[in-house]
Amino acid sequence: xxxxxxxxxxxxxxxxxxxxxxxxxxxxxxxxxxxxxxxxxxxxxxxxxxxxxxxxxxxxxxxxxxxxxxxxxxxxxxxxxxxxxxxxxxxxxxxxxxxxxxxxxxxxxxxxxxxxxxxxxxxxxxxxxxxxxxxxxxxxxxxxxxxxxxxxxxxxxxxxxxxxxxxxxxxxxxxxxxxxxxxxxxxxxxxxxxxxxxxxxxxxxxxxxxxxxxxxxxxxxxxxxxxxxxxxxxxxxxxxxxxxxxxxxxxxxxxxxxxxxxxxxxxxxxxxxxxxxxxxxxxxxxxxxxxxxxxxxxxxxxxxxxxxxxxxxxxxxxxxxxxxxxxxxxxxxxx
Length: 335
Fold this sequence. Notes:
Number of helices: 14
Number of strands: 0
Shape: globular
Number of domains: 1
C-alpha cells in the first residue's frame, strides 16, 4: 500500500497513477453499485462491501504497528460510520434502485454545499462570502434542474423520493465529515477508517435484516456482473482508491487533491452512459456543468474565506470515510 511512502518528491508516474486511481475508481463506483444491486439487496451489498474492506484494513493496520484502539475510539468510529456509511452511502445505494448512477453521483456532488452550510450553522464558522455564496446558489440551482419536473427540452427528472433520500444522504455525509474532525479517533488514518467501515458495515447488515433483505437474498440468483461489481467496490473503491487518496494527501497540495471533488461526478456520468446506456439528456449535461462549476467555486473560495485552512478545503468523496486530523500532518505545517 502507498501509505508508508512519504517521499517529498514522488515520481511523476506514481503520482499520475495515484490521481488516476482516485479519479476513475471512485467515479466508477456509482455504476458498480448499480450493477451490484441488480441481484443483491442494497443494504446487504453495502454492508458486506464495507465490512469486508474494514476487516482487511484493520488487519493491515494492526500488522503495520497501529496500536489497539480504545473504547472511546470505537464509540467515535461508530458515530462516523452511522453518519457516513449507514445513512450516507446506504442512502446512495438504496436510491440507485430508482435513479441512474450518474444522476446519483451529481446529487452526491452537492456534499460541499452542505459542509459549508453545516459548518456555518453548526460550528459557527464565518458567514460565506460572495464567491462562496455564488457557488452555493449555483449548486442548489443545478440540483433543482435535476429534481424539479419540467415539460421543456432536455426531458426527465429525478424520482422525488430518491431525490429526498440522496439529499438526506449528502447532509449526513457532510455532518459525519465535520464531526470526525473533532472526534476522538485513532492517530492512524487507515485504522480509523477501518473501524468506521467495520461499524458502518455491521449496522448496514443489521438494517438489511430489519428490512427483510435476508429473506430476499438468493445467492443462486447472484449474477456474475453483480459479483464482480461487489469485488470491484471492495478492492478498487474502498482499498486501492482509498490508500491512493491517503498517499496523495501526504505528497501533493490541497488544491490538487481537491480536484477529485469535481472530476468524480463527471466520470460517473460518462461511465454510466458508456457502460450502462444511461440517458445523457440536455438537462443532465446542463445540470452537470452547473453543479461541477459550483463545486469548483466552493473548493476554491473555501480555502480563502476567513477562518478556513487549506486542510478544511479538502472535500469528502463518496468513497472516502472522514479522516482524523492526523492524516494531514504536512498540510498543517503550511496552514
